[in-house]
Design goal:
29% of the residues lie in helices and 23% in strands. With 761 residues, it is α+β, with helices and mostly antiparallel strands. It has a 7-stranded mixed beta sheet, with helices on both faces. It has a 5-stranded mixed beta sheet with strand order 7-15-14-13-8. Strand 14, helix 9 and strand 15 form a beta-alpha-beta unit.
């Protein structure tokens, strides 16, 4: 089809967004809405008491001061998909209250909510609240939280260990390691990151006058993700009592996947005041109180036989949960560990993951949600092994790739890969990157006083989770096809992608396709956007539903045009008898049909899909300053099928930006007292356009065998492959010049300079 799968259709959304006509949450706040301000803790660990709430309630413009007493009827925020400990025991989950009664556990913990006529009045009132704190000892990061004698953050978690989970077969891996003739070991820090999407979170709460329903407008990754937690788990009310709406969303990356305490609080505020109440986070709110990502310390060991074949892998990870076990906090490091085998044949694998509480903002899913952490471990470790043994890293990888003949391949951590040609993909990436010419570029850089390094990393991830997705396709009498679907675009271009899939099925002009998302009244079911599921799962439902609708339209057109249904073809404007000029428009067909052209179809994935790829990176390091420049970047990916090449490349560029940012710049720092030192964009470094070279991107697709369209998903790929590839390149540059074998992320100029100075001494 002209506009179908594989077409480089430009995004339908862009004219709206680039002309400033997008409708984000802050754009929907009515002038007469009351404004809420969250009162946040200045202490990382303390008992507290609010002593003058009544006085503050009497201040000018103040409508309400909401404290824990006002939320006592609400359940705490839940943690979902909590695994068992390795011994089969249940993991206790400490209460994560909507508002704490008397103790705070991180700087930014919410103590109260002030609602006033204006934001300025609300802020004045919030500052007037007198809060008496009794400070407690603090464990602000992973190492402090597991140190002997560390303050206990939750009584249910002695030693601050929330859970102790095993994956694979720990004892079998330890036994297999004894047979290794060579062993490589590494200890890694996967640094904590703050998402920093362009649009901060927000929520607008109101009570529907006619029905008494709670109405929540929220910047989210899926209204059904919010209603499922908010209604039955927090409010203990039927879903029918809630209406959740999400307008345009300016970035999510996992962090907007969850139901936060502010969403319940604006509804309580609306109930108390009888007003529509709006809360829009500022950037400080985002840094302090939104869930952070990553933050692991991992020790890993890989054993090899005399031929350089892997015999065993042992991994031991401490995963920082922050102050509470948030919604998917336990699921991210444990489920992510199921990708620890990477693309390699590994006969035995043992994984241990301990979740650790600390006095910091909760950690949860961030782009990739456990898969980048796993890829970073395996790809840094295999590079370290090659360097320890004097083997070329590329050669060591090739010895251990899972071959196509072994597909489907089930790893020792329980993932079954359906397809993949890793060696061939590797070779294409090296050819595209002109790795053979690296020596020449290395010599040229040396003449300029720069250290040049070559690094690469292979990744594989599991996508298409989240269960069933449904799509309803309805053709109107105006000839416009409306798609109702429970995913939520956060900037990925869903309207364009779904229009292309509808065009593939119906031939319809994408400009005549409308997509409706983000409204629980219009869309009864949905599983939201996350884990690269929207197109492989939601898109498949659109395509199969479109096929069924096309069949229905052909039959009706055949009756009207007095032809056989087999002779009817669909095109941009409607239906026609093939080879003739006898046509009917889509609008005419819909208007003349006794039954509506309305089809609902669904897709429930039978198994995950497994996108994979290789990133090849060259960096130059200035030994005088420690500054690292990424000067050459090549990536070849296997996404099964490419739906839209232009949008796909944009996704890859964005993911690489986030992975590169983590590798070289992004550093979340808490001091010993638990204060977030990097709490603004003045102190937290993000990548900018001039931090990147041109990115040479291409695909080598092998269609997925478990998805009807062959799709594997692409949204997180760039972020997964970039961090290990960039870090490997930095280490390569430093090792060539100074023998340095390790540096942790972020490899900031200061960190690189200090490593060089230490090695020089």
């Amino acid at each position: 089809m002209k506009f179908g799968i594989g077409a480089s259709l430009r995004r339908k959304e862009d004219p709206t967004f680039i002309t400033g006509k997008g409708r984000y949450l802050a754009d929907t706040v009515p002038p007469d809405a009351a404004r809420a301000v969250m009162v946040r803790s200045q202490y990382a660990h303390a008992d507290f008491e609010i002593s003058n709430a009544d006085d503050v309630r009497a201040m000018p413009g103040v409508l309400a001061v909401i404290t824990a007493e006002d939320t006592a009827h609400l359940n705490p925020l839940p943690s979902i998909n909590v695994p068992e400990n390795h011994d089969g025991s249940k993991i206790p989950v400490p209460e994560f209250p909507v508002l704490p009664k008397s103790r705070v556990r991180f700087v930014g913990d919410t103590l109260a909510v002030v609602v006033a006529e204006t934001e300025a009045q609300a802020r004045d009132a919030a500052e007037a609240l007198m809060i008496d704190f009794t400070p407690l000892d603090v464990a602000a990061d992973l190492r402090a939280a597991v140190a002997a004698g560390a303050p206990v953050i939750h009584g249910e978690a002695p030693g601050n260990v929330a859970f102790d989970w095993h994956g694979g077969n720990v004892s079998a891996a330890a036994e297999a390691m004894k047979s290794a003739t060579q062993i490589a070991e590494i200890e890694l820090v996967n640094n904590r990151v703050v998402t920093n999407f362009m649009e901060t979170r927000g929520a607008i709460g109101s009570i529907e006058p006619e029905t008494g329903r709670y109405v929540l407008e929220v910047s989210s990754q899926g209204v059904h993700l919010v209603i499922g937690v908010l209604a039955s788990m927090v409010f203990k009310q039927p879903r029918e009592k809630f209406h959740i709406i999400t307008p345009d969303v300016g970035g999510g990356f996992g962090t907007k996947y969850f139901c936060y305490r502010e969403y319940a609080l604006v509804l309580i505020a609306a109930e108390k005041t009888g007003r529509k109440v709006a809360w829009i986070a500022d950037r400080s709110d985002h840094f302090l109180a939104d869930y952070h990502g990553r933050d692991h310390i991992t020790k890993a060991k890989m054993g090899f036989d005399e031929r350089g074949k892997i015999v065993a892998l042992e991994v031991d990870t401490l995963a920082n949960l922050g102050a509470y076990m948030s919604q998917l906090a336990a699921f991210v490091p444990t489920n992510g560990s199921a990708l620890i085998a990477g693309v390699y044949r590994i006969p035995q694998i043992g994984v241990r993951v301990r979740g650790i509480y600390s006095n910091s903002s909760p950690c949860d899913a961030y782009r990739g949600a456990g898969r980048p952490e796993a890829a970073y471990v395996i790809e840094r470790l295999i590079d370290k092994a090659a360097r320890d043994f004097g083997i070329d890293p590329a050669a060591l990888r090739k010895r251990n790739y899972i071959p196509p003949s072994a597909m489907p391949h089930t790893t020792k951590v329980g993932r079954t890969y359906d397809s993949g040609e890793f060696k061939a993909l590797h070779e294409q990436a090296f050819e595209n990157a002109d790795v053979k010419g690296f020596r020449t570029r290395l010599r040229e850089a040396k003449k300029r006083g720069k250290l040049r390094g070559l690094g690469h990393a292979v990744y594989i991830e599991a996508c298409s989770g989240g269960g069933e997705e449904r799509a309803r396709l309805s053709l109107g009498r105006d000839g416009v096809l409306t798609i109702y679907i429970g995913t939520q675009s956060n900037g990925q271009g869903h309207h364009t992608a779904y229009a292309q899939l509808a065009s593939e099925a119906l031939g319809i002009d994408p400009d005549k396709v409308r997509v409706v998302q983000g409204d629980t009244d219009q869309i009864a079911f949905g599983a939201g956007t996350g884990g690269s599921r929207s197109i492989p799962v939601g898109g498949t439902a659109v395509k199969t539903g479109g096929d069924k609708l096309a069949e229905k339209i052909r039959k009706h057109a055949a009756e009207k045009l007095e032809a056989s249904a087999a002779d009817i073809e669909l095109f941009e404007d409607g239906a026609r008898i093939a080879g003739t000029d006898r046509t009917m428009s889509f609008g005419e067909l819909a208007a003349s049909s006794p039954e509506p052209f309305d089809i609902t179809d669904s897709r429930t994935p039978e198994a995950p899909t497994f996108p994979n790829g290789m990133h090849v990176v060259e960096v130059e390091v200035d030994p005088e300053t420690g500054e690292t420049d990424v000067v050459k970047y090549t990536v070849v990916d296997d996404f099964g099928v490419t739906l839209n090449p232009i949008m796909l490349e944009g996704q890859i560029h964005g993911g690489i930006a986030q992975g590169l940012g983590q590798a070289l710049m992004e550093r979340t720092v808490y001091d010993e007292s638990g204060q977030l030192v990097t709490a603004s964009l003045m102190d937290y470094c993000l990548p900018r356009a001039d931090d990147f070279p041109d990115i040479a991107f291409s695909t080598r697709n092998v269609p997925c065998k478990t998805n009807p369209l062959g799709l594997k998903g692409a949204g997180e790929a760039g972020a997964i492959g970039a961090s290990p590839a960039v870090t490997n390149a930095v280490v390569d540059a430093l090792h060539r010049a100074y023998g340095i074998t390790h540096i942790d992320m972020p490899a900031t100029p200061e960190a690189v300079w200090r490593a060089i100075q230490a090695a020089a001494r």
